[in-house]
Amino acid sequence: MANKQRLAQYILRVTGVSIDPNSLFDIQVKRIHEYKRQLLNILGAIYRYKKLKETSPELRKNSTSRTIMIGGKAFATYTNAKRIVKLVNDVGAVVNNDPEVNSYLKKPTVLHNTFVSYALLFSKATSGIDVVFVPNYNVSVAEMLIPGSELSQHISTAGMEASGTSNMKFALNGCLIIGTLDGANVEIREEIGEENFFLFGARADEVPQLRKDRENGLFKPDPRFEEAKQFIRSGAFGSYDYNPLLDSLEGNSGYGRGDYFLVGHDFPDYMDAQARVDEAYKDRKKWLKMSILSTAGSGKFSSDRTIAQYAKEIWNIEECRVP
């Protein structure tokens, strides 16, 4: 809680937005890229927001209060990555000013630097949704974000993450992970126990066939996925033309089309996993136990063990003990 309060103070200082340390702090911070699927994250948040608006105030009280933060840098010429950042900002501005889902309104803040650096925070109102965006994500900011997080999203398309290690840092700091079987997620889940990891999505060996099925017109989108996209197209988040971004999720094949990163395929499984997160967080003793076991099982990822293994298996060098 002390780390969450410190993070909340930092967010207030750099964005002017007040967030509730009692809400679930849900963070995705990494380079903005289509394969890392920040788009999947924001589409899930959009669907959550839409359902909250359609829910009665009484039923809203039963929802898990959540603060979603997205941060990272988009390369200057990577147009779709910048569109994703734009969408996250636009959604945040709307959600933060919607009295139906926010008990205290927040002034929308769009922040950036010369390298297109961004971070967004979604917050859920009292038992609802809150949203904010954290600027200039870097190692210094990570030193506050990671210890203050409770859920971390590592949701890349299976088989595409080369050597990401931030998930290890999150696990070592008491954070639970929602993610695919990709990159270090595979080893982390093995070490901490599958019951302490929120898994979803296609496996790496399934991806080629799923892409081929898509090319052959066999993909049938989940209604929730279509609903989230249509909500964007309705102009709910402003007049910006998001069709070029959404078109990348459409069709069966073609450059920049055909949903190469399987956002549509994994969306329903992702939403189901997020529902499991909501339920687990309501049971604070269960969540605490999962968090402790996750951290306790992460010892394999220490730098001492890693360097010792490299020395033995790759460098073929012996210890040189200090007298």
From TrEMBL:
One Pfam family hit: Phosphorylase
Signal peptide: none
PROSITE patterns in the record: PHOSPHORYLASE (PS00102)
Catalysed conversion reaction: [(1->4)-alpha-D-glucosyl](n) + phosphate = [(1->4)-alpha-D-glucosyl](n-1) + alpha-D-glucose 1-phosphate
Needed co-factor(s): pyridoxal 5'-phosphate
Keywords: Carbohydrate metabolism, Glycosyltransferase, Pyridoxal phosphate, Transferase
GO molecular function: glycogen phosphorylase activity; pyridoxal phosphate binding
Coiled-coil regions listed: none
GO CC aspect terms: cytoplasm
EC numbers for this chain: 2.4.1.1
GO biological process per UniProt: glycogen catabolic process
Function: Allosteric enzyme that catalyzes the rate-limiting step in glycogen catabolism, the phosphorolytic cleavage of glycogen to produce glucose-1-phosphate, and plays a central role in maintaining cellular and organismal glucose homeostasis.
Similarity annotation: Belongs to the glycogen phosphorylase family.
PANTHER family noted in UniProt: ALPHA-GLUCAN PHOSPHORYLASE 2, CYTOSOLIC (PTHR11468:SF4), GLYCOGEN PHOSPHORYLASE (PTHR11468)
Full protein name: Alpha-1,4 glucan phosphorylase
Organism (species): Gossypium aridum (American cotton)
The organism's taxonomic lineage, starting at the top: Eukaryota, Viridiplantae, Streptophyta, Embryophyta, Tracheophyta
